[in-house]
Design goal:
Elements lengths: L4 H26 L11 H33 L4 H33 L3 H30 L7
Helix pairs in contact: 1-2, 1-4, 2-3, 3-4
The structure holds fe (ii) ion (2 copies).
Length: 151
């Protein structure tokens, strides 16, 4: 199966949308202060929770589309591409784990009695996920932009 232009374009579009959401998330995370007067931050915390819930819906389906329509196709181009596809799939598993722990921190924020600690956890896990997810997509965009795709 060859990489089709429509799949390559829709994958690129999914990256742009996800990047926008991650930048929103990063801005909200930057506005979250980890100690004292946490109640002043609840606006940021709510924004982070909204972003997190949305990412929980969109990221796994992006990974699934990408693996089937893009990575499995480019893996056939040669050993170097096969290694790239394997590496990206491995990163998907790690990123899914980071997203799950970020979402776990969102859930604990709603029930925790130690709000300050719950906010710190939320900030830390959110930043970890956002950083790694952005670098992952930048690496994919860089590598995939070197292919000329068929119509
Ligand atoms: Fe990916
Ligand atoms: Fe991707």
């Amino acid at each position: 199966m060859m990489l089709r232009r429509t799949d390559s374009e829709s994958n690129h579009f999914e990256h742009l949308t996800l990047m926008q959401h991650l930048q929103e998330l990063e801005a909200a995370l930057a506005g979250l202060v980890c100690y004292a007067e946490v109640y002043a931050n609840l606006g940021s915390a709510e924004k982070i929770c909204r972003c997190g819930k949305e990412l929980r819906e969109t990221v796994p389906s992006h990974f699934a589309h990408e693996e089937q329509a893009v990575l499995d196709a480019v893996a056939l181009l040669g050993p170097q591409w096969a290694a790239f596809a394997r590496e990206m799939k491995g990163q998907h598993l790690q990123l899914q784990g980071k997203l799950d722990s970020f979402c776990g921190a969102i859930e604990r924020l709603q029930t925790s009695e130690d709000l300050e600690n719950a906010i710190c956890q939320l900030k830390q896990r959110g930043e970890e996920f956002a950083d790694q997810m952005l670098s992952h997509m930048v690496a994919e965009e860089r590598k995939l932009s070197t292919i000329t795709v068929n119509a």
